[in-house]
Amino acid sequence: MPLKKMDKKKLDYYKKSLIKLKESFLRDITNMSKDPGTHNGDSGDVSGHVLHMADVATDMYDREFNLGLASSERQALVKIEQALKRIEEKTFGICTECKKPIPDTRLKALPYVRTCLKCQEKIETKR
Fold first, then answer.
1. For residue 114, which phi and psi values (nearest 5 degrees)?
2. Which residues of the chain have pLDDT under 50?
3. How far is CA 83 from CA 53, 66, 120, in A?
4. pTM summary value
5. What is the per-residue DSSP string for 75-91?
């Protein structure tokens, strides 16, 4: 049974959505790596004032939190690149597990998704 491929108009829509999402993630990662509101890496003296331990701990927590976010966004960027490749290969919107079409509602929510919801649930229950 041949796969029903997505029409060019829909593929263009998803390609634009993925590129926009990619640019947003790249901008976020760049902003996070610019030391978000911390004291430029100093953990002791700023303008002659000693920082309170709680301030230092908050800064460290913020840095770790942002690193975690950046890591998640980098993983999403990889998925976005893979989705863009599937668009070029004309396999976008087809579940990589069961080879059935992924519903538009799922693709609109997560345009880089590669599996239908049923297959994703199976994958997650195996973990």
1. -115, -5
2. 1-2, 36, 38-46, 48
3. 45, 25, 16
4. 0.67
5. HHHHHHHHHHHHHHTT-
